Q: What sequence folds into this?
């Protein structure tokens, strides 16, 4: 009894398991729940010479008798039983299910001619009248006859076929039901005899195969010849189902039907697709069968346009177990079988379900879809259609709306890897089968024949990359390849323009092989006096690099075939490089600075070994922008560099991709001061003397940056080859770490710049940029920018958010941080509010005209004001710049920025002259408040210039005193406000 209690959410799965037609040709089921009551199949089950097992699911094994000889692979690769005509037979004790009142029986055999009756099947009882049925071959004539017994007339009623099939494999089909012409016998699906004979059921005797006289022991009428399948249904099959079963059996045993032979792919001419044949369709009488699976793994159902005389059959060229194996034709894993279809007329599209239980799919990547491939050619290399086989249950996969043409081929495959050869990509989900961002569980294999003529022109994510010796992977400009795991590089990877390579695995490098990656980067040092800070995305040997080993003359930018020449590095006595061919770079200025207070220079371009992540200084060729090409083994994984207190290190992006500066800073907050310094040299430099350099440092902290001298602020992403300084002022040592988690794909532009080219603000918090300018000559102007981020922090030092000024000039401007003496170029402070006041430090080395500017405000709607305490003037920087002439000196308490003019205008209330006297003794740190009137003091508060309350007096005993003395020992030297709340109002006054 089949169980049909399926949960609603598993309806599809329930449907699949409940209604799969696994009987012969896909008619009936093999779980004992259908009209299929007996299926003796020499190829299925634990068959021996004495046991023939039932495959119907009912367990009616035939095991008591003398048996017969089991011949393996006897006909078309299938087993058969040989009966000797003397004593071979099988029987099964009485079962009522094997004696139904209506039935359809199919018997396949190759009979020998004898002079005796030869029973194929017999379920008779002649001990008391005539009962049951028999399929005989008559003596001498060997004509097939269908007998039934009737107790009412006590005779055997015979339906003759008039046909002998001696010496040939054939199918005899006998159908019985009570009524007119209820008895029929077919030979090879052709109706040969019809009668209306009645039948009385055998109710006690065994069912025999290969002998008759069931009521006698030993039996009689032994079969002489070979037998194949014996199949019994307890119903009269309709015409469509009869046609399907007969086509299945004829294909299996390798002969043709004389009627309705609709499946014709089982011939040598058509490829011998003899195995696991099944079918669906509708006969001319309107009977149909619309769901079949049969003995194979392919099930079809749900024809969309079924009409009379429409059939679809399919069969395989493989009988045995199936596996998936790689093919070199299209680099897919393909199942070890093909199928072919015979289509009669047009029943529309169908659903196809494949059952892959027991088939090893461990090689199938998780993201790879199983595909049903349909082609009109047996090589299946240029499919006419391809359908995704989507999972619908355990080991079950379905494709819907599948269209077949007569004689089509189909198979099942999946891409195990994406392959590139010299003509095309294979198996990717992108354009022209190239990899895309959806292929992150597939390996990319670049064959040795790939010559770079086929480029990767879209972003791709893959599991692994292998480049064979001689092979070349070319990635188009502004595209990326992201690799989840490792790279076996025995050929070349060429990153054109701003293309990038990213690896995502954790830990050490997973790049192996001796091949090379090529990646260009341009220098913006346009004369021979300028310095630039570099790092290398590749190594010479997989562990370290020399400058000459990895840096090549890129005057001809990288293409699929360029071979950049070595650079001519001069000795230390030659000061200038030049645009020779190949280019010349001065060896004098090559330098490194690792965990030290001073440069190590000059360093040898050929022997000095640098670790990945360590940067170097280099001067360029002059004569304009110069393109360089890095060539070597790509860096990957985690790299570290130790830095000790008081030291600085010139480091740099070690990868052939951008890195996220904010993630890098966050990862290294305990190792460094939390600031990156990018050197901007000046195009106006005209001397090699350090004291005459006019360059300086653009600065980056988490979330924001400032430029140097009016340049561009370094943005969130650090490009390939970019070097930068980091420092450590904390005690002890720190370990700076680069890792793959910092890597991103970002091209040069709005958010990534080489040597600080970017100009776009993209901030998640309010931001203020104050500019400071003065002329250094008639033609040159020095520019400094300060940046304040309002991000919920404190006035104290926050590592990663406050940046010490790395390059303070004699005349300059800076920000203040509590408890720090150093000048700051970036500070992160509390959340924005319009009452804040920000003090500035200004330095003048000589009489100088300077200009204060509002460079930018982001997320701030109020105006920005500058207060000059010395002149008592307030400037609205939102409207105009403030230009002042400064005398030499350091001005720590003169200039303030605020967002309300009233905050800067807190002057003495007139009452102070008559009612209150406030004085501050800086030496004794005492603040005196004298009440000269009868005013009632309710509260006294002291605020710093940021509007933060730093002290308060609210005890009534003290407030009643005529002279109130307050200690200012804990207050730093700065401007403060005292606020006296009285019964007559509030009085405010500044004190220092």
A:
């Amino acid at each position: 009894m089949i169980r049909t209690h399926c949960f609603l959410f598993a309806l599809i799965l329930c449907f699949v398991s409940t209604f799969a037609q696994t009987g012969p040709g896909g008619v009936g089921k093999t779980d004992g729940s259908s009209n299929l009551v007996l299926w003796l199949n020499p190829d299925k089950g634990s068959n021996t010479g004495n046991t023939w097992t039932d495959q119907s699911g009912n367990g009616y094994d035939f095991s008591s008798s003398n048996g017969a000889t089991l011949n393996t692979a006897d006909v078309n690769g299938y087993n058969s039983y040989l009966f000797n005509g003397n004593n071979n037979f099988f029987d099964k004790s009485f079962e009522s299910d094997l004696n139904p009142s209506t039935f359809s029986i199919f018997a396949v055999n190759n009979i020998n001619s004898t002079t005796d009756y030869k029973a194929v099947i017999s379920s008779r009882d002649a001990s008391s009248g005539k009962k049951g049925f028999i399929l005989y071959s008559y003596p001498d004539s060997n004509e097939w006859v269908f007998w039934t017994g009737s107790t009412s007339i006590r005779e055997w009623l015979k339906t003759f076929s008039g046909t002998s099939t001696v010496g040939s494999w054939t199918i005899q089909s006998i159908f019985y039901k009570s009524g007119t012409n209820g008895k029929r016998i077919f030979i090879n699906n052709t109706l040969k005899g019809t009668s209306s004979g009645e039948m009385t059921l055998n109710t006690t005797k065994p069912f025999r195969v290969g002998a008759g006289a069931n009521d006698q022991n030993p039996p009689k009428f032994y079969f002489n010849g070979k037998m194949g399948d014996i199949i019994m249904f307890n119903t009269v099959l309709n015409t469509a189902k009869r046609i399907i079963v007969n086509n299945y059996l004829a294909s299996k045993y390798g002969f043709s039907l004389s009627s309705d032979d609709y499946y014709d792919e089982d011939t040598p001419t058509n490829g011998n697709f003899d195995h696991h044949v099944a079918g669906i369709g509708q006969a001319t009488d309107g009977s149909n069968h619309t769901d079949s699976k049969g003995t194979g793994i392919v099930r079809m159902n749900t024809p969309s346009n079924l009409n009379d005389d429409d059939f679809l059959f399919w069969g395989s060229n493989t009988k045995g177990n199936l596996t998936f194996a790689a093919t070199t034709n299209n680099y897919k894993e393909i199942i070890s079988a093909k199928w072919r279809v015979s289509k009669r007329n047009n029943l529309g599209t169908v659903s196809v379900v494949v059952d892959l239980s027991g088939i090893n799919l461990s090689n199938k990547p998780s993201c790879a879809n199983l595909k049903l491939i349909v082609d009109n050619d047996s090589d299946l290399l240029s499919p006419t259609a391809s359908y995704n086989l989507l999972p619908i249950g355990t080991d079950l996969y379905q494709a819907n709306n599948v269209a077949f043409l007569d004689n089509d081929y189909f198979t099942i495959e999946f891409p195990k890897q994406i392959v590139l050869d010299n003509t095309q990509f294979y198996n990717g989900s992108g354009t022209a089968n190239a990899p895309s961002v959806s292929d992150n569980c597939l390996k990319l294999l670049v064959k040795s024949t790939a010559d770079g003529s086929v480029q990767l022109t879209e972003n791709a994510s893959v599991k692994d990359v292998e480049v064979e010796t001689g092979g070349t992977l070319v990635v188009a400009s502004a595209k990326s390849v992201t690799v989840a795991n490792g790279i076996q590089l025995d050929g070349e990877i060429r990153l054109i323009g701003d293309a990038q390579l990213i690896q995502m695995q954790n830990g050490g490098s997973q790049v192996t092989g001796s091949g090379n990656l090529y990646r260009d980067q341009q220098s913006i040092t346009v004369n021979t006096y300028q310095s630039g800070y570099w790092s290398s995305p590749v190594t010479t040997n997989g562990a370290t690099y020399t400058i000459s080993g990895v840096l090549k003359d890129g005057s001809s930018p990288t293409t699929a075939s360029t071979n950049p020449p070595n650079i001519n590095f001069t000795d230390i006595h030659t000061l200038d490089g030049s645009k020779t061919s190949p280019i010349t770079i001065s060896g004098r200025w090559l330098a490194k600075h690792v965990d030290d207070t001073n440069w190590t220079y000059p360093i040898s371009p050929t022997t000095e070994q640098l670790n990945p992540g360590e940067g170097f200084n280099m001067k360029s060729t002059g004569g304009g922008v110069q393109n360089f090409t890095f060539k070597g083994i790509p860096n990957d994984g985690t790299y570290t560099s130790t830095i000790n207190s008081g030291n600085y290190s010139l480091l740099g992006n070690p990868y052939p991709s951008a890195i996220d500066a904010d993630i890098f800073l966050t990862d290294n907050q305990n190792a460094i001061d939390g600031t990156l310094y990018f050197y901007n040299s000046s195009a106006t430099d005209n001397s090699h003397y350090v004291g005459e350099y006019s360059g300086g440092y653009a600065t980056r902290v988490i979330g924001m940056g400032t430029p140097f001298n009016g340049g561009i602020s370094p943005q969130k992403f650090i490009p390939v080859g970019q070097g930068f300084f980091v420092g450590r002022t904390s005690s002890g040592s720190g370990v700076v770490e680069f890792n793959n988690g910092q890597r991103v794909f970002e091209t040069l532009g709005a958010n990534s710049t080489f040597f600080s080219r970017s100009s776009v603000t993209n901030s998640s918090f309010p931001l203020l940029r104050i500019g400071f300018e003065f002329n250094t000559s008639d033609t040159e102007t020095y520019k400094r920018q300060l940046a304040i981020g309002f991000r919920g922090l404190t006035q104290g030092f926050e590592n990663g958010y406050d940046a010490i000024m790395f390059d303070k000039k004699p005349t300059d401007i800076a920000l203040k941080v509590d408890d720090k003496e150093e000048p700051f170029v970036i500070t992160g402070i509390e959340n924005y509010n319009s009452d804040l006041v920000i003090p500035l430090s200004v330095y003048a080395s000589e009489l100088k005209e300077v200009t204060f500017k509002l460079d930018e405000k982001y997320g701030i709607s109020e105006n920005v004001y500058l207060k000059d305490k010395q002149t008592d003037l307030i400037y609205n920087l939102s409207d105009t710049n403030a230009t002042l002439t400064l005398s030499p000196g350091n001005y720590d308490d003169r200039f303030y920025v605020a967002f309300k003019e009233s905050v800067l205008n807190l002057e003495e209330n007139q009452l102070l002259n008559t009612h209150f006297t406030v004085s501050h003794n800086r030496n004794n740190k005492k603040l005196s408040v004298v009440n000269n009137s009868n005013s009632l003091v309710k509260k006294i508060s002291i605020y710093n210039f940021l509007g933060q309350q730093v002290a308060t007096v609210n005890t009534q005993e003290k407030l009643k005193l005529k002279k109130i003395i307050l200690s200012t020992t804990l207050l730093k030297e700065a401007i403060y406000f005292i606020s006296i709340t009285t019964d007559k109002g509030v009085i405010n006054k500044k004190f220092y």
